[in-house]
Amino acid sequence: RAPGGTIVIFVLGGPGSGKGTQCSKIVKDFGFVHLSAGDLLREEQQNPNSKDGDLIKTYIKEGLIVPMEITVKLISKKMQESKSNIFLIDGFPRKLDQAEFFCKNVVEPHFILFLDCDKEVMKQRLLKRGETSGRIDDNIETIEKRFKVFKEESLPVIEYFEEKEKVHRIPCTESPDEVYLKIRPLLEGLSK
Ligand code: UP5
Ligand code: MG
Q1: Which residue owns the Cα nearest ligand 1 atom 40?
Q2: Which domains are present in the chain?
Q3: What is the pTM of this model?
Q4: Which of the four pLDDT bands, split at 50, 70 and 90, describes residue 14?
Q5: 136 in helix, strand or coil?
Q6: Residue 3: what pLDDT?
Q7: Cβ partners under 8 Å of residue 58, min gap 6
Q8: Does 20 show up as a binding residue in the annotation?
Q9: Burial class (CB in 10 A: 0-12, 13-18, 19+), 150
């Protein structure tokens, strides 16, 4: 537990691995605050007063990682505004420098949930979701780019935290409920 009592859990995994789905289940049972970096960026992109909207849109459409100043600012603001002290940060950090920056300047994570999912399974989930999601990155061209960026830029983040012995690897090709059964016990000891 960091000074001030803040607990941060990073929920990481490839595109479509089920980060959002599992975080919703955790919120329902434990009441932690769920901060999806992707959702925060999409919200900012749609804010007409934001100067970063066009940039965010371009990066998301290309499956690229938005410069971290923008993302860290959005996450930190939500953390400061919250009365809660246990946060699930979903889909961030996505790059080694982001992980190092956040650990040094915001807080060290309590642990990492790494949703480890087969690429073909993730691809089928995203294509299916793309039929109705309206997300500009749920198309086959962008999905392939997201996989490449995940492998090249985001997997090193998992390795970085593995060296610190902070990673719980959760296989997640089974149903959402079955995956959640493996996650739930890891959270039971944490109190608000
Ligand atoms: N589904 C989920 N679990 C299932 C299961 N066990 N069995 C069967 N189906 C399952 O799930 C995806 C779909 O699969 C859903 O239809 C779900 O019902 C089904 P979801 O829970 O949404 O998976 P998630 O891992 O959250 O997938 P998401 O698409 O959100 O992951 P990404 O990491 O690709 O997207 P994110 O929103 O985090 O980021 C989008 C973009 O924003 C990035 O590509 C990047 O451009 C930008 N970004 C940054 O630049 N910086 C950041 O820090 C974060 C994002
Ligand atoms: Mg998500």
Answers
A1: 38
A2: 3-184 (3.40.50.300)
A3: 0.97
A4: very high
A5: coil
A6: 53
A7: none
A8: yes
A9: buried
